[in-house]
Write a structure and sequence with these properties.
This protein is of the alpha+beta class and 71 residues long. It is built from two helices and two strands. It has a two-stranded antiparallel ribbon with strand order 1-2. The longest helix is centred in the middle third of the chain and has 21 residues. The radius of gyration is 13 Å and the shape is elongated. The two termini are 22 Å apart.
């Protein structure tokens, strides 16, 4: 499992997206599925950045584990 910790700020979305994209590409993930995952990660991260912390900036830890489909 790969892990990335960044400040929970919307400006960090590019760092998060790059991390996820690299891991998906290394795993040979289909581009269409990769795009769907990237959209979901963006939505989740932006929500964390906007709503998880009241008046201070906290951290967000992104964990990426890719399991092979047994089919």
């Amino acid at each position: 499992m790969k892990t990335l910790t960044v400040p929970a700020q919307p400006e960090q979305i590019e760092v998060v997206q790059e991390f996820i994209s690299q891991e998906l590409e290394k795993a040979g993930c289909d581009r269409k599925i990769q795009m769907q995952i990237e959209v979901a990660v963006e939505e989740i991260f932006v929500n964390i950045a906007h709503y998880a912390y009241d008046t201070h900036v906290g951290e967000a830890t992104i964990r990426c584990e890719i399991l092979e489909n047994p089919l």
